[in-house]
Amino acid sequence: MCQLPTKLPRPRKLKTLSMPSAAELRQAGVKFKLGSSKNLFDAKFNKSRGRLEIPRLLVIDQTEILFRNLQAFEQCNCSDKYVTNYITMINLLVCSTRDVEILVRKGIIENWLRDNDAVLSVVHNLDKENLIFLDNFYFSEIVEDLNKYCRKRRHKWKASLKQNYFRNPWAIISVIAAAILLMLTVIQTVCSIIQVV
């Protein structure tokens, strides 16, 4: 937990402090994956695959106290604000219990509290006292890439197609059958027109 990121980025300014929540990202086609690293700061986004990898965050009764102490230490003694930036990124991802549920299901958040509402409360409480410096935001590349990815309509259409029409084998078969039937109808219509002419 208390370690530097394995890959230190060059300082980058974050243009805007906004990002779609986990549920919105999922609707835009972003896939969540549990990161293999034990270092919380090793989150990464693969633009070509649309996959966001985040290491596991264990949420227990002492999580809020631990992060508050790390936040206070970092804000008093460190020029780089990795913990502060991490809390901000998680807070942007988690806006509702539905977002928490998605991350818990993927193993990114390991919830040892009573329910997902408690996790949501911990995340939002941590962000209340968070001093954010946009000039040197550690996760700026991820935030900007996710925003760009979600703005593209084709990603939303592709995700909608998968979620609505290809969620199980029978749905796939029925869509293919409907497409074939439509194609045969068009061919029959064209042949009928050609015969008449």
Write down the secondary-structure element order. Answer: HEEEEHHHEHHHH
How far do the termini sit from each other?
Answer: 77 Å
The portion of residues assigned to helices is 40-55%
Strand order of the largest sheet: 1-3-2
The share of residues in extended strands comes to 5-15%
The main β sheet shows up as: 3 strands, mixed
Can you count the helices? 8
Strand element count: 5
Rounded radius of gyration (Å): 22 Å
Number of domains: 2
Low-confidence stretches: none
Task: Specify the structural class.
Answer: mainly alpha
Pfam family, one: DUF247
Transmembrane segments: 170-196
Keywords: Membrane, Transmembrane, Transmembrane helix
InterPro entries: DUF247_pln
Topology:
Layout: H1 22-27, E1 31-34, E2 44-46, E3 51-54, E4 57-59, H2 63-77, H3 82-93, H4 97-105, E5 109-111, H5 116-128, H6 140-151, H7 153-165, H8 169-196
Parallel strand pairs: 1-3, 4-5
Antiparallel strand pairs: 2-3
Helix pairs in contact: 2-3, 2-5, 3-5, 4-5
Transmembrane segments: 170-196
Keywords: Membrane, Transmembrane, Transmembrane helix
Summarize the model shown:
By secondary structure, the protein is mainly alpha-helical. Helices cover 55% and strands 9% of the residues. A hairpin with a 4-residue loop joins strand 2 and strand 3.
What does this structure look like?
The chain is mainly alpha-helical and 197 residues long. The protein has two domains: 22-158, no CATH class; 168-196. It is built from eight helices and five strands, in the order αββββαααβαααα. Strands 1-3-2 form a three-stranded mixed beta sheet, covered by helices on one side. It has a two-stranded parallel ribbon with strand order 4-5. Helix 2 packs across helix 3, helix 3 (82-93) crosses helix 5 (116-128) and helix 4 crosses helix 5. The longest helix is centred in the C-terminal third of the chain and has 28 residues, at 169-196. The chain is elongated, with a radius of gyration of 22 Å.
